[in-house]
Amino acid sequence: MEIEHAIKRAKQNDQKAFNYLLHTYWEDVYGFQLKRIGNENDAEDITIQTFSKAFDKIETYNDDYVFKTWLITISKNIHIDLLRKEKSSISRQISKEDEYAINQVLDESPSAEDKIITDQNLAKLLRDIKRLKPHYQVVINLRYFQELTYKEISVELSEPINNVKVKLLRAKKLLAEIIQNE
C-alpha cells in the first residue's frame, strides 16, 4: 500500500489504513521523541498521543506536505504542550524504589484470567502478554479478556478513545513480534 493511498483511505476512516500508517511511521515518531526526551516511556506515550491526534485530525492533512513531517510536527507540539503543563502544575515524582515496588506488585499478582485459563496455548499467550509493558497489558486485558468496548476502555483509563485504539494496535503488534520471535 502506498502512503498517498493509505492517507486517502484513512481520511475515509479505514482502520487498515490507520494501522498501515501507524506501523510505517511509528519508529520515526518514537525515535524523534526518544532523542528529544531520552525516556522510553515518555517517548512512547507522546508517540501514542501523536498518532491519536493525527488520526483524529487526518482530514486536515494537506497533501502538499510530507506526511512524516506532519506527524513529527504534531509530536513536537504535544511535547511542548506537556512541558507547559508540567511547568504550570506541581507534579508528584515517583522515586525509583516506588516505581520498582509498583512493577513488582503488577508482576507478582496473578490475574483472574490466569486462574481460569488452563489450556496450554492460552497460558502461553498470557505469559507473552505479561512480557509487554504494563499499560499494554491493561489495554489487552480490558479489550480481549473483559471484552470492553473502546468507549468503555476510554472511560476506564480516562484517556481519549483514539489513544486507546493506538495503544491496542501497538500492543497487538508488539505481542505478534514476541510470538514470532519464539
TrEMBL record:
Transmembrane segments: none annotated. CDD domains: Sigma70_r4. It holds the Pfam family Sigma70_r2. The keyword Transcription regulation applies. Signal peptide: none annotated. Keywords: Sigma factor, Transcription, Transcription regulation. One of its GO terms (molecular function) is DNA binding. Belongs to the sigma-70 factor family. ECF subfamily. Residues 126-175 form the RNA polymerase sigma factor 70 region 4 type domain. Residues 24-87 form the RNA polymerase sigma-70 region domain. The keyword Chloroplast does not apply. This is RNA polymerase sigma-70 factor. GO terms for biological process: DNA-templated transcription initiation.
